[in-house]
Amino acid sequence: MSIELKNISYTYMPKTPFEHLALDDISITIPEGKITAIAGHTGSGKSTLIQHFNGLLKPSKGTILVDGVDIGKKNTEAKAARRKVGIVFQYPEYQLFEETIAKDIAFGPRNIGCSEDETQERVKQAMDFVNLDYDKYAHRSPFQLSGGQKRRAAIAGILALQPKYLVLDEPTAGLDPKGRESLMEKFRRLHKEKGTTIVLISHNMDNIASYADNVIILNKGKVTMEATPEEAFSKKEIISQAGLELPEVKTIMNELAQNGLEIQNNAYTMDKAVEEIIEALRRKGKC
């Protein structure tokens, strides 16, 4: 199954002097069981787009299907479909509001009708997943945590809902390199162990190169490309027009090719780049 958007358009403040077309006739599919990246510069429509995935925004035109169900309808089936999609917004730590971490994480499961026993089990599992020790942190105020711990607590609150589709809006924004890598590896683990479909919203093309199975490029509210990472990163002009940069590894490989190293130049991650370079040097008898 999938999340499918058909001819979605969205206009902010219609019929006013401030009218702005944020999404323009977008049709995309988020396949189940994959990591799909949506990339675009600030103002490209990324955040507006993902708020349509679970009905936070209703399109001015078009239809959104989650596992074949039209989530724009007002019925029990549509409500259940909307709950399959969990969104972790940029800087989710600003959304913490309860007096303790455990209560904050428990808010979602209680709101969807989980029993108290199931709620507590989900809280413990979610805290364990983000490496927040339950005994140590459950009864602390969220506002006593460090910035990174707040980020993990907020993410745990979404994970406790056990969404089938997890949407991450710039999840590593503001984190140091070690924190970024640690957090992304947790999401990769969730994807592999639980089969969770992940949608990664980012303008960090290195993250996208490392984790994504599919890439969607947005530019000024329109989809300009929907492709595999290998194909996407071969279209330098489209990437540049969207205000984005190629992954650092891909830029280096392009320069090596331009300077005469006979490589296939398909690599966009470090491991693949090393393999290509070694193979090229072997062919030249230098390795």
Task: Describe this structure as you would to a colleague.
The strands form two sheets. The protein has a six-stranded mixed beta sheet. A four-stranded antiparallel beta sheet has the order 2-1-4-5, covered by helices on one side. Helices cover 40% and strands 22% of the residues. It is an alpha/beta fold. The chain has twelve helices and ten strands. The protein has three domains: 131 residues, Rossmann fold (3-Layer(aba) Sandwich); 72 residues, no CATH class; 41 residues, no CATH class. Forms a stable energy-coupling factor (ECF) transporter complex composed of 2 membrane-embedded substrate-binding proteins (S component), 2 ATP-binding proteins (A component) and 2 transmembrane proteins (T component). This is Energy-coupling factor transporter ATP-binding protein EcfA2. It is found in: Cell membrane.
Please give the structural blueprint.
Layout: E1 2-12, E2 20-31, E3 35-39, H1 46-50, E4 61-66, E5 69-70, H2 76-82, E6 85-88, H3 101-111, H4 116-129, H5 134-137, H6 147-159, E7 165-169, H7 177-194, E8 197-202, H8 205-211, E9 214-219, E10 222-227, H9 229-232, H10 236-241, H11 248-258, H12 270-283
Parallel strand pairs: 3-8, 3-9, 6-7, 7-8
Antiparallel strand pairs: 1-2, 1-4, 4-5, 9-10
Helix pairs in contact: 3-4, 3-6, 4-6
Number of domains: 3
Q: Give the name of the CATH architecture of the largest domain.
A: 3-Layer(aba) Sandwich
Low-confidence spans: none
User: How do the helices and strands follow one another from N- to C-terminus?
Assistant: EEEHEEHEHHHHEHEHEEHHHH
**Strand pairing plus helix content: what structural class?**
alpha/beta
GO molecular function: ATP binding; ATP hydrolysis activity; ATPase-coupled transmembrane transporter activity
Domain ABC transporter: 3-245
Keywords: ATP-binding, Cell membrane, Membrane, Nucleotide-binding, Translocase, Transport
Protein name: Energy-coupling factor transporter ATP-binding protein EcfA2
